[in-house]
Write a structure and sequence with these properties.
disordered C terminus, 12% strand, 160 residues, single chain
């Protein structure tokens, strides 16, 4: 036989809430007084929960929470990367394409990077991105011209 009424303690345990919130949940529902205790109709509670779940405010809140969880996950992943300190030369922000460190080779249709671990690869990619930003035309020439390439330490002989 199914339980027809739920008292405050049952509501507290069922929803993992305290007394005040349990009373708020029970408010306005058909109830039965049993001594000092009040019990609400189980079916009325189920109907209220279903109508609340179908409502626009509830759906908006579910969507908001899902976006928040996604944003927190993205932030946690980014935080791990931000803690890494890249082993880069002091002048890496001023590099040009011709001054790339050893182990970085640019040819038309090909990029080769020799690295020794994740941090070394990240440092070389950062160096390449800075050189591209500082010397875009040379970069375009190096990767698009047939037969011309800039192997490591090409025009400037820089070191990493």
């Amino acid at each position: 036989m199914a339980i027809s009424h739920l008292d405050r303690l049952t509501i507290q345990k069922l929803f993992s809430v305290r007394e005040r919130r349990a009373r708020q949940i029970m408010a306005g529902l058909p109830a039965l007084q049993v001594g000092n205790a009040v019990a609400v109709e189980r079916q009325a509670l189920i109907q209220r929960l279903e109508s609340t779940a179908a409502g626009g405010r509830f759906q908006w809140e579910i969507t908001r929470r899902a976006r928040l969880v996604e944003e927190l996950d993205r932030t946690r992943r980014q935080l791990a990367g931000r803690r890494v300190r890249l082993p880069a030369a002091a002048d890496v922000r001023d590099r040009s394409i011709g001054e790339l460190a050893g182990g970085i080779e640019l040819r038309p249709g090909e990029l080769r990077i020799q690295f020794y671990g994740a941090e070394d690869l990240a440092a070389k990619l950062f160096e390449l991105s800075q050189a591209m930003a500082n010397d875009w035309q040379t970069f375009v020439h190096a990767v698009e011209e047939d037969g011309n390439s800039l192997p490591r330490n090409a025009a400037g002989g820089g070191t990493g």
